[in-house]
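User: Working on a comparison across species. This one is Small acid-soluble spore protein Tlp from Alicyclobacillus fastidiosus. Can you predict its structure so I can line it up against the others?
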Amino acid sequence: MAKPDNRSDNVEHLQKAINHTMQNMREASDFLKAHGDEMNAGDVADIRAKNERREEAIEGFREEIQDEAKHQHRM
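Assistant: Here's the predicted structure for Small acid-soluble spore protein Tlp from Alicyclobacillus fastidiosus:
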């Protein structure tokens, strides 16, 4: 038998994911500021592209939090 859907801690998990992703973005940005002029252009572009994907992921996490809030409000 399948377990019932327990969504009570989803917002907490999503917020942790946002915090972790934002920390990774800051670290990557700081690394580029400190070492970007020593790196080849391709590696710099890769790090910037990864941070753009992280930003998109954060937007998705925030949308999921809104969905969770709506779901909890209905209950």
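For your comparison, note: Residues 23-74 form one domain.

User: Helpful, thanks.
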